[in-house]
Amino acid sequence: MTAYFGLLGSGQSPDSKRVGLAVEDDMLTATEAGGGTWNIPLRRVHLVGWAGDELRLELAGSEVSFVPEEPDAVLAQLVPALLARQQRGAAVAGPAGGTVLPSAPEPPMFTVDLTPGRRPPTRTPVEPAPPIAGRTDGGGLRSLTPPRSAAEVLAPGRSKQRWYWWFVAAAMVLGAVLATQLGASEDPAAAARRAIADGDLPAVAVAVENGTATLSGSVSSPGVAEAIVATVAAVGGIEAVNSILSVPTPTTIPSATPDPTPTSQVALAGAGLVDVEVEVRSGVAVLTGSVASEFERRTAVSAVMAVGGVDKVDNRLLVASLP
């Protein structure tokens, strides 16, 4: 006799005990951890159902729960043994002529869902199977209902649990797909503008068409323009970047050019030509007056050409005649 240990309790108070259940002859034997045992006739034992890893039993009219330490072993050994004894006890005698007598009605089986956190358990009646006809021997016993396996009795509870986990897995997959699609459907232009702001770069206009981003606006330097182009090119959904960003050209104010006329006059005085007049207009120096010789005339030209701002000399000097 093999005992299957687990927690046995009424489910209404914290009085569960660790016991070992075993089927021997027509008795269900329960052995407590302290060594005490008690027996219940199998005719007073009924299987109610299975939910999760909990077996529901009716023992002598009281419904209890049994949470086995080895659920697979209980489902493979103890439950079929209880079912076999139950079905054997349901057999009735038939007359010698072979006519099948109606059997006493069997109590309906119930499937109880005891999953924690759910609404109060609901019971679903399982209709008893209809009588079947077959061979009878003279005065022998006759079973009026087909035998049912442990899997058939306990299938409803396990089926609910299996469908629950399938639903959870499908919901997770659907959520991942929706998240991927929502991320992929983001406007590339908006994504580019967000990337520019995240890079602490100045805001510019961004337009995206057929995978090509066009950038427009004004930035402070070519380096900033290049940084914006590189940032936008790294955004998903953008394949090419067309930059028409403008960089302002610094304005150069020309310095005032001093009038070369006074300087030219000083240069002539330095050469000893105090009687020569000079006036510079648009880079052309005009010499007027008279000199004593051709040598002084050429000296005047050389003195004026050495002055900054004089590009050309209009020599109108006259050489005075000797007396």
Sequence-ordered SSE layout with sheet pairings:
Blueprint: E1 4-9, E2 17-24, E3 27-32, E4 37-41, E5 45-51, E6 54-59, E7 62-68, H1 71-89, E8 92-93, E9 109-112, E10 123-126, E11 141-142, H2 150-184, H3 188-198, E12 205-209, E13 212-218, H4 222-233, E14 240-246, H5 260-270, E15 277-281, E16 284-288, E17 290-291, H6 294-305, E18 312-315, E19 318-319
Parallel strand pairs: 13-14, 16-18, 17-19
Antiparallel strand pairs: 1-2, 1-7, 2-3, 3-4, 5-6, 6-7, 8-11, 9-10, 12-13, 15-16
Helix pairs in contact: 3-4, 5-6
Describe the structure.
It contains six helices and 19 strands. With 323 residues, it is α+β, with helices and mostly antiparallel strands. It has three domains: 4-163, Roll (PH-domain like), CATH 2.30.29; 188-246, Fe-S cluster assembly (FSCA) (GMP Synthetase, Chain A, domain 3, 2-Layer Sandwich); 260-319, Histidine-containing Protein, Chain: A (2-Layer Sandwich). The strands form six sheets. A seven-stranded antiparallel beta sheet has the order 4-3-2-1-7-6-5. A three-stranded mixed beta sheet has the order 12-13-14, covered by helices on one side. A hairpin with a 2-residue loop joins strand 2 and strand 3. The longest helix has 35 residues, at 150-184. The protein is rod-shaped.
> Helical residue percent?
25-40%
Structural class: alpha+beta
CATH architecture of the largest domain: Roll
Number of distinct helices: 6
Oligomer: single chain
- The domain tally reads 3
> How far is it from the N-terminal to the C-terminal residue, by CA?
165 Å
| Residue runs with pLDDT of under 50 for 5 or more positions | 92-124, 131-146
CATH superfamily of the largest domain: Pleckstrin-homology domain (PH domain)/Phosphotyrosine-binding domain (PTB)
Radius of gyration, rounded? 56 Å
Sum up the overall morphology in one term: rod-shaped
CATH topology description of the largest domain: PH-domain like
What sequence of helices (H) and strands (E) makes up the elements? EEEEEEEHEEEEHHEEHEHEEEHEE
Query: For this structure, what is the CATH class of the largest domain?
Result: Mainly Beta
Number of strands: 19
